[in-house]
Each structure stands twice: as structure tokens, then as C-alpha cells.
Amino acid sequence: MSTVQGARARARVEVTAAIKDEARRQLAADGAAKLSLRAVARELGMVSSALYRYFPSRDELLTALIVDAYDAVGEAAEDALAKQRTAASPTARWIAVCRAVRAWALAHPHEYALIYGSPVPGYTAPETTNVPASRVGLVLISIARDAHLGKGVAPPKPPARLLVDGERMAADFAPDLPPAVVVALVAAWAQLFGLISFEAFGQFHRVVEERDAFFAQAAEQLARSVGLVLPA
Amino acid sequence: MSTVQGARARARVEVTAAIKDEARRQLAADGAAKLSLRAVARELGMVSSALYRYFPSRDELLTALIVDAYDAVGEAAEDALAKQRTAASPTARWIAVCRAVRAWALAHPHEYALIYGSPVPGYTAPETTNVPASRVGLVLISIARDAHLGKGVAPPKPPARLLVDGERMAADFAPDLPPAVVVALVAAWAQLFGLISFEAFGQFHRVVEERDAFFAQAAEQLARSVGLVLPA
DNA sequence: CATTTAAGAGAGCACTGCTCTTGCTTTGGA
DNA sequence: TCCAAAGCAAGAGCAGTGCTCTCTTAAATG
């Protein structure tokens, strides 16, 4: 697919990309609330109505940016893992991935807010975001799987009803992981983004100063909570 | 203070309250992005320019709602603690407070998003929000203090630079707590809101179904991470 | 009672998302 | 090759927004 179609089609993907780029620029500068279709069009030298040939509404443009943002964090996480895949211990890999996600968030706070802050559009995230949204989670799962194939400290056993959830999730994502580990992983996943969100959204202002060290410490504790053993 | 001033002054506080109430209604209905000064004024039977006698801008109105929301969660947490103060173990109190905060968030998702989601206004939260914003944190600290005055499992020792942060925070909020515990508390605080935010913002959609049990399990793990011992 | 003060009403500015109609250009089939 | 069909840009226009003025009326103060 994407064979050499007519020049018209190529122009279309270029304009589409230009719109997204300019929108991302404005997003990074002023935040999602102030992203204006008219301003994007103005900056691109076209009239606002022309932009509707490419994105049927402002929310659709935002959705496109959301998908791109999910892919960007996901890629950051996957790259961090790839760089450490063979050498380091599972715990070191876990911490490296956590660090990478945090670094991306702090470097792109508005894009981060778009995906992990309050949902901006009419409350329902489109289905197209589901796959890119799970990339970071899958990276974390893969680290835990590698670790638990060897030895690993089992997390505390959850009650039976929760284990049902854990089994279903394990069936979907990691058939060889014990359900209790999957449950702990999901919790760690949410907690990781709690740490990052508080830092990115300014909740640590005048509270935590040594943020790198603080985050490293917390990421280590998260690794422990999913049963990864610490290097001596 | 607040002595019986003229009837005009009383009308002012009443109108101010009515504006905030209507704004809160619209916030709960459609979210912060769609909160409109003109719509609030319209609903109250006044003209939009009159509203500016009470709030100098839309952001100031939002700030007032933010302060109220912080106070509401804070009160929910304090009430939950008060109900269990004498009877239950520190761990049970911790979980009760966590549950109360979560319940408030799920009951008022838009107000929750206002304070723990992406920062809406021009990036700087006013200083007036600082005190109400710390109420939940103070409740968590007080539970840990009660527990650690007796016995408690010390969290892993952070590196020296981080301990400096911990000592400063301890000096501010809990002089009798070991710095390492304070550091762990702040991490648990952020992680708690990570769990709640993911649930409130729909990130657990089609992932976690047994959310009550899941949250209880995670809250228990958080208690453990700050050194609270579990009841046998 | 006179005067200062506060509040509401209304018009208006600059902006937004979005729709509709009007022309122009590229495209693909006869 | 020509011609209809489709894609695209432009412009006007609608309804809505935050916010700022001016004007008038009602209350509080001296």
C-alpha cells in the first residue's frame, strides 16, 4: 500500500502532516485548550475552511495528536528497553524504561497532558487510540515476563475475584505470567504515571526538589512491587 | 469578622455563591473546557458583563472552583479518618482514607480532573490553592505518624541527597517522622492519585473490571510501602 | 439631603468552531 | 483527447465565546 499515487494524493499527505506539525507546535506552546484551528490555518497560509478538508473537526485533529503522542511515549519506552535488552538486569531495564517515559513527559508536558491528563474531548476516547495507548504497558509486561521466567518474588495474592481479572488480562497480554503478577503490574503501571503526572503537572512544586533521585527511588520500589529482585 | 454588614454586602456573598454553584453545575455536566461565563450568567438571569463584578475573569472563577474542590477532597479524607480514628489499625485507617478520596473522585470526575488533571489555566496555579491542596497529604502523614510512633517497618533508605529533601519536608510537616518515611509517603501520595486518575479518566476501560477489589489491593500495597504493618 | 459607591444593562471588539456556496484544478474514464 | 466527476481553496456568514467599555439606576455613606 501507499504506492505512488497521483501528485494530488501526495500533496494531501504533506498538507495533513503540515497541519499536524503546526498543531503540535501550538500545543507545545500554549496547551490543548488554546489550540485553534483558525490559528493553525492562518500560520499555514490557508483559510480555516480549507482545513476541514483534512480534519472534520477540532476534536479529530486532537485525536490525531493523541495517537501520535501515545506512539511517541511508546517508542521512547521501547527504545529504552532495546538499548538495555541483553546487558542489564530486569530491574535495571525496568528503571530505564520508567526513566525514559518520565523524560519524554517532562520534555513534552502538553502532549503528555493530552494523553494522561484530563480527557479533553467529549469524554469518549476513540477506539483508534487503544493500540498505541498500550505500548508502554506492553513494554513493562515484557520486562516482568523475562524476569519471572527465571526466578521472581511473587507479589501478595489478591482475592479470588481480582484474580479473575488477572487471568483475563494474562490471557490477553502475557499467558505465561501468574495472574497475581499481572494485577501488580497494572497497579505499578498506574502508579508510575501518578508519579510522572504529579511532577509534570507541578504538584511537586516546593515539595520535592531532588526529583531525579526521588523518581529513581520510587521506580525501584515499583519494580519491587511487581516482584523484580534488586541487584545486590 | 463577617459581622452583619449592610444588606448589599450580604447580597454580594449570595450572588457570588450562586455563580459558583451554577458554574459547578456546568462543570459537572460538561467539563471545564465547556464552562462558559455567558452561559452561567444567562442561567442566573443576568447579563454576562455583570458577572465580572464578582469574578474578574473566567480563570479566576475556575480558581475558586479549584480551591473548593481541594477542600472537598480534603474534607472527605479528614472525615474518613475521623470516623476510624480510635477503633481501627493504622493500615485500616490508611485504606479508609484512600477509599474516601477515590469515592469522591469517582463521584465528581470533572471537579477531580480540575485539580488532578492537566492544569487548565496559563500554567501557574495561584498560591491560594497551596493550603487546601495539601489537606489530603496531611491526612496521610498523620496516619503514618501515629503508626511510626509505635513500631513500623522502615522503608528502604534513599540516597543522601534525597534524604535532605526528606528532612526538609519532615521539618515542615512531621518533625517526628524519619526522613526516609517522609520520602516514601510522598511517593505513595503521588501513586495513590495515579491509581485514582487512571480509573477516573477511563484508562482502566476494558482493562480492569473488578475496580473496587483492585483498588483495595493497591491501597494495601501502598500502606506497606510506607512501612505500615498489615493486620494478621 | 447630597454624594459617593456599587451593581446591572447594553453595545461592541476580536476571537472561536463550523457550514454553505462559489469557483478552480486535478483526475480518471469514454 | 475531451468531459464529467471529484477534490480542493476561498469567502461569507452564523452562533457562540471572553472581555471592555459606557450609561443608568439603586444603595450606602457623609
TrEMBL record, chains A, B:
This is TetR family transcriptional regulator. Signal peptide: none annotated. It comes from Streptomyces xanthochromogenes. The lineage of its organism: Bacteria, Bacillati, Actinomycetota, Actinomycetes, Kitasatosporales. It comes from the Bacteria. The keyword Lyase does not apply. Coiled coil: none annotated. Residues 36-55 bind DNA. PROSITE patterns: HTH_TETR_2 (PS50977). SUPFAM superfamilies: Homeodomain-like, Tetracyclin repressor-like, C-terminal domain. Keywords: DNA-binding, Transcription, Transcription regulation. InterPro entries: Homeodomain-like_sf, HTH-type_TetR-like_transc_reg, HTH_TetR, MT1864/Rv1816-like_C, Tet_transcr_reg_TetR-rel_C_sf. Residues 13-73 form the HTH tetR-type domain. The keyword Transcription regulation applies.
